[in-house]
Amino acid sequence: MMLFDMEKPQGFDPYEVLTRLVVPRPTAWVSTLSPEGIPNLAPFSFYNAVCDEPPVVLISISKRENHQRKDTSRNILATREFVINFVSEDLLKEVELSSRDFPPEISEFEVCKLQEAKAYKVEAPRVAKARAWLECRLLKHEELFDYDLIFGRVVFAGVESFEVASLKPVGRLSGKFCRIVEINQAPNQP
Ligand SMILES: Cc1cc2nc3c(=O)[nH]c(=O)nc-3n(C[C@H](O)[C@H](O)[C@H](O)COP(=O)(O)O)c2cc1C
């Protein structure tokens, strides 16, 4: 048995314990537009759906070491909108690449050679290759410790197919990705 006093961590990193035990986490691959009109794309796995009436998601975005906001938070606070692109197994290379710390004037769409597609209700572009996406408007922003908590109201959704075999969803399992497979029958489709 390993025991961890998470209030007084000594000799271990609470992040490692948390991200190994809160699993699997979905990854929000968030596309935004800067006020100057430059697209931005980055993944966040401290993410989940928190309400369904109305549909609301929550993303937790840490500040950088110098306490500056990440580009995604800055863009969302400035434009009040974003798109969450669904992460499928075949997009993992691009997801990893888009997580690197590029300056705001560089578009991760270009770095990752990903085509942009127009969203339906928001100005932020979406990843054309993503098999599903959620268009969101900022509902609420909270600062908690050194994190920006972004509550997004989902105003539009698109999906090629709800079949798991087609979506090829992945989860975040400690520092790695894992496949999500069904154990029992599929949930009812809308
Ligand atoms: C799979 C994955 C999950 C991540 N999850 C988070 C997260 O939940 N919160 C966070 O602040 N950063 C997370 N990151 C790191 C951000 O993607 C990274 O800081 C990125 O550079 C932020 O980009 P931006 O400045 O364009 O917003 C994650 C990275 C990867 C690869």
CATH level-3 fold name: Pnp Oxidase, Chain A
Number-wise, the strands total 11
SS-derived structural category: alpha+beta
Proportion in helices: 10-25%
Mean pLDDT: 96
CATH class (first level) name: Mainly Beta
Q: What global shape is seen?
A: globular
Continuous helix count: 5
CATH-level-4 superfamily name? Electron Transport, Fmn-binding Protein, Chain A
The oligomeric status of these chains comes to single chain
Distance linking N and C termini: 44 Å
Which architecture name does CATH use?
Roll
Ligands, ions, cofactors: flavin mononucleotide
Total domains, how many?
1
Task: Summarize it.
By secondary structure, the chain is of the alpha+beta class.
Secondary structure elements and pairings:
Elements: H1 14-21, E1 28-33, E2 39-44, E3 47-52, E4 55-62, H2 71-79, E5 81-85, H3 92-98, H4 108-111, E6 116-117, E7 126-127, E8 132-144, E9 147-159, H5 164-167, E10 170-173, E11 176-179
Antiparallel strand pairs: 1-2, 1-5, 3-4, 4-9, 5-8, 6-7, 8-9, 10-11
The protein binds flavin mononucleotide (FMN).
Q: Can you tell me about this structure?
A:
The protein contains five helices and eleven strands. It is α+β, with helices and mostly antiparallel strands and 190 residues long. The protein has one domain: Electron Transport, Fmn-binding Protein, Chain A (Pnp Oxidase, Chain A, Roll), CATH 2.30.110.10. The strands form three sheets. A seven-stranded antiparallel beta sheet has the order 2-1-5-8-9-4-3. It is globular and about 50 Å long. 29% of the residues are buried. The mean pLDDT is 96. It binds flavin mononucleotide.
